[in-house]
Amino acid sequence: MIRKLADNDIDKVMDIWLDINIKAHDFIPASYWFRNYDSVKKMLPDAAIFVYEESNQIQGFIGLTGNYIAGIFIHSNSQSKGIGKELLNYVKKDNPKLLLRVYRKNVRAVNFYLREDFVVIKEQMDENTDEIELVMSWAK
Hints:
Blueprint (H helix, E strand, L loop, with lengths): L1 E3 L5 H15 L5 H14 L4 E7 L2 E9 L2 E7 L8 H10 L4 E7 L3 H9 L3 E8 L4 E9 L1
Parallel strand pairs: 4-5
Antiparallel strand pairs: 1-2, 2-3, 3-4, 5-7, 6-7
Helix pairs in contact: 1-2
């Protein structure tokens, strides 16, 4: 089931956010994600967050600010089960165009977005991490 984030979901969502960022971005020091934890947690209420829940357990979530996907995060035990695709399709229904940024070195995520019909529109340097990120777009 996909539903909007509830206030009592924030800690679980942040646990997934931190765990997956550290695992998916092993080319960025874990300290970077720990340093940004509190600021991301404070920004959550300003975004549209949708969680995927199964058996009363949050398995993943997607965050949107307007038509910008801030991220899709799936619990490590639930990856490769179609949850990311379901979350993405859920937001595609109401958004004729979506944008996102993904680190070029995060090959698994890049390939996922390419499979889901996103196209790379430019490359740029993330000044916070000194890593190249791809700006990707999708349109109906």
